[in-house]
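Q: Entry one of two.
A:
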Amino acid sequence: MPGTEQKHERAPQGQAARRFLFVLLLGSMLLVGATAWPIVEALLVAAVLAASLAPLQWRLAAKLRGRRKLAAGLLVFAVLVLLIGPLIGLSAFAVKEAGAGVQFILETVRGEGMTGLIERLPGPLDRYAAEGVARLGDLGQLLESQLGKQGPKAASAVGTALAATGALLFQGTMMLIALFFLLASGDVLLGWMDSVSPLRRGQTHELLREFRTVASAVLVSTLITSGVQAIAALVGYLVTGVPHPIFFAVVTFFVAMIPAIGAAAVCVFAALILLVTGHPYAALLLAVWGIVVVGLVDNVAKPFLIKGDVELDGAVVFFALVGGIAAFGMVGLLIGPLAVALFLALLRMYKRDFQAGR
């Protein structure tokens, strides 16, 4: 019959159109991913902060007679002053000083040799370094010649450090801008995502609630763990007699939020100060305390704190944190638990909404 033939003709055409639309959708997703990739870390951190600060923003906006943008601006300014500013400042200072230190070492060795570098070391390090170079013999001369050849590259090392500082400032700026828009228009964005999502009504909001829960748990656990590490480090600074212990404790708090460095690095740096000032036993005690106690508190406290707010086993949280950091660096601290929690949420939704009807 004519009607049956037309239906058979439209069916293949409909399937071809669906496949073509799927290919276009996949291609557009890749383009969007490539566009967002340079600032993906800034966007993710902004989303986590927005999800955690949303309840506070609602209460603040209510006190300001519904001025959501003003409330969002005040919260962004508070984040800049209390959290992001010190982190960027410490990171920029560390990068700059590391570059300057490398340049100084290379130029000194190139101009005066290893002897000139050793003479600049404080006692008793100068004596130990001289004995070590003497025992190396020809190997020490080879090391000196190789370091001397690297002198022209010192300027490029400083340039690389400055570029890294600029990139960090750029990411911080993009994060603050994204945070403002998410706080000011977050509900509009959520409604739009629910309307364009192919999921059933309510499933998108369920996933976003899961994201908010995990994001808040990660952020709160990071702050609390950093505080615990700073207190533990302060005990070590006071016992071993580190100069300006409160200053070092504050630095430990902020550095503890950077997984790639960690709070133990500050303790080791303070131990080096004790060593060069003639307190080797106190330096050894502080270094051991920093690595064993301060450094390991993070691995125990953070999974325990996250487990209290998220329906995940403590071991799963621990390996999600470690694996996320290993795969994605600093931002993996957020991606690891979020990926596992969202995956389990999708499994629960599939089992409840699709397998239940079978």
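Q: Entry two of two.
A:
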Amino acid sequence: MRNRFLLLFLFICGSLFSQKKIIRGTVYNEKGAFQDVAVYFNNTMIGTATNKKGEFSIPVIEGNHQLIVSFLGFKTITYNLDTKTYRKPLVFALVEDENMLDEIIIGKTKYDDDWKYNLTRFKQEFIGRTELAKDCEILNPKVLYFEYEAEKKKLTAFARAPLKIRNKGLGYKITYDLKQFIIEGNRVEYLGFSKYENLKGNKRKQRKWEKNRLKAYNGSATHFYKTLLNKSTYKEGFIVNQFKRIPNQERPTEKEIKKARELVRLSKSMINFSKKIDAPITAVDSALLVLRKVRLPKFKDYLYRTKVPGDSLISIKSGFPYLDFKNNLSVIYTKEKEEKGFILRNMFSKKRNPLQQTSSLIPLSIPTMLNKRGLLLNPLDMIFEGYWSYEKFADSLPLDYEPHLDED
């Protein structure tokens, strides 16, 4: 089964340029000035807290950014900031969040085997299962509360406070304000806001972190997008192919499967499930043949264009770059091989030699805008499959990370 993930944990925005600007503002609530409110640019290392007067000031590079104003128990404010139009100090009013998890519900949370099992699933689908995930730890997991709907096979996670995450592999401490997390079937959706800080470490650790950060960056979706804008896609190790995805005619329809299951259920006591059926004679025979094809993939992919020029995937509208292509993309990164964990990621996986990293880009909305740093402004527009769906939060970098591409 192919895992499909909406990579929703980023609300990416931020077109960073060279000139810095000081952004000032005030935060208050119904009682007046609000101290110690977190004010930061989403998914970056740029942030501060308000003083006794509720005031803040943040230096930021010219461009478009998403400013986050956050305090536990109050609705998170997201403000799209364009430094070109910024003229006077910003003013934000925090409002109590009536949808916050009831403390009574949280108080009844039992940290039993079910909770531990759900936590394990949460970590696997949020933190990930990569090599870097082994060194990425949630420091306050008991802020999490889970609900499971058996009929839908749906797991929902809530957090009564921001998650505190220590990534010893990349050298970051991250505060993650989880807004949504859902596992339903083989699909995972999560979104939130993150603030990065550097961990302290000696020179040896610093060198290790820089090496790991560069490795996490190389071959990533962000790296790929930047090469499209820089017209260096193939030079930097990417090969791009295009494919169509069509329904698999060999697989029964959902209606046929439902009808077959119902017939088999009614006749269960009289059925020989190991019976060899060359040609169906009865309705039950036909139903069994239908159910034996359930594991066939719902879709088939047909490659129709290879080695697509990177610049053909970008269009310019009103001076802004857009990711713009038909059907779907298969993106191969030739300079790194798959991790062992990717090869053996499910119970049906067979051991094999690692191949070049291959990811699929499935658009939900196209064209979709990129900023000048090669970041997808609306990550909800794309579904990642393959290797990019395997790399999750433990392999993520802040938006203001600058790779040193001359390193080995």
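A: Comment on entry two: The CA atoms of residues 131 and 339 lie 8 Å apart. The helical segments are 103-107, 113-126, 203-217, 221-230, 254-266, 283-291, 340-343, 387-390.
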